[in-house]
Design a protein that fits this description.
This protein has twelve helices and two strands; from the N terminus they run ααααααββαααααα. By secondary structure, the protein is mainly α. Strands 1-2 form a two-stranded antiparallel sheet.
Length: about 325
């Protein structure tokens, strides 16, 4: 590569780096929003929850947030034709499901809408010139402040908040599946031999630790600034800090959702002979080639790594999309 005028600065400018991190995070989060819809739907099935809270009539006409409607539609598709959902309608005395099931579209939907806003900012920034000084159309050279990273830093910080919240809700669903008092008949901790085996107890510990870290990473970096350059650069965006912590947040969310997926599929398998819907059945079959499934305790770290890889490389969404539209 032979650099021309201004291209050296373009390669090392902090605001361009923030933008690159934002674009990468947005690509990952769009996929993880779909993953969150899938794991929430599978968990709802596993807990013998209802799909009625996700009906379209409850979303677009009543609370027209686009992300919420998209999430509800995805969850409805994943739970379609589920005998487990049908059992809720005939044998269940519960009036309504817990918030972590019933309100999943509202929380993951807010992540989607935050992604939409951040995408708008990224699109504008990709079309922007942030050099200083710049040569204007009239060939004058002008000093300016377009290099300031505040617009990018703010949305990097903004995204970290719903990332933490989606993960927090996923952990709550996992904990519900492991708790014999709230799991609607599943064995304690989804263990093969409760009291001897610990099942997925430590997996939920892992989720809890990650979620606690994500909450700390949700604290904004862009409200902080330390002057430099003899007070000439007396207010900076701290956008690189926001970008780095968002990257940690994206990775943490993926791991939390992977744990929920492991718990939900194990819970679904333990419901046999009752079966999930076609999407859940396909996921159970595909994941069966990756993890051991219900049975005596195994070394859990390898299982968690395998499930995270199943999510990260797209196999989960490919499996679901082969059965239902997302």
């Amino acid at each position: 590569m032979v650099l021309a005028e201004k291209e050296g600065l373009a390669l090392i400018n902090g605001t361009d780096g923030m933008l690159g991190q934002l674009v990468l995070a947005l690509a990952d989060l769009r996929e993880l929003a779909d993953v969150a819809d899938v794991t929430a739907a599978l968990s709802t099935e596993a807990l013998l929850g209802t799909d009625q809270a996700f009906r379209a009539a409850l979303h677009e006409p009543l609370r027209p947030h686009p992300g919420q409607g998209r999430c509800a539609a995805n969850m409805t598709a994943v739970m379609a034709d589920s005998p487990m959902t049908a059992s809720h309608r005939t044998d269940c005395t519960r009036v309504q499901d817990a918030y972590s099931l019933r309100c999943a579209p509202q929380v993951t939907g807010s992540l989607r809408d935050t992604i939409s806003h951040a995408t708008l900012v990224a699109d504008r920034e990709l079309a922007a010139a942030i050099d200083n000084p710049v040569v204007l159309d009239d060939l004058t050279i002008a000093s300016n402040g377009n290099f300031h990273g505040a617009p990018v830093a703010h949305v990097l910080d903004f995204l970290a908040i719903p990332v933490a919240d989606v993960a927090s809700m996923a952990e709550r669903r996992t904990d519900r599946m492991l708790d014999v008092a709230r799991s609607q008949g599943l064995p304690p901790f989804l263990a093969d031999d409760p009291g001897t085996d610990s099942g997925l107890m430590i997996a939920q510990y892992t989720q809890a630790a990650i979620v606690s870290e994500l909450k700390r990473l949700a604290v904004p970096a862009s409200v902080d600034s330390i002057p430099s350059s003899a007070m000439q650069e007396d207010h900076v965006s701290m956008g690189w800090h926001a970008a780095r912590k968002l990257r940690q947040g994206v990775d943490g969310l993926r791991r939390v959702l992977a744990v929920e997926l492991l718990a939900a599929t194990r819970a679904l398998a333990l419901r046999a002979p009752l079966q999930p819907g076609p999407a859940g059945t396909a996921v159970l079959a595909a994941l069966g080639d990756v993890v051991t499934g219900p049975g005596p305790d195994v070394y859990l770290s390898d299982e968690l790594d395998a499930v995270e890889a199943f999510v990260a490389d797209g196999r989960l969404l490919t499996t679901v999309r082969a059965v239902v539209p997302l």
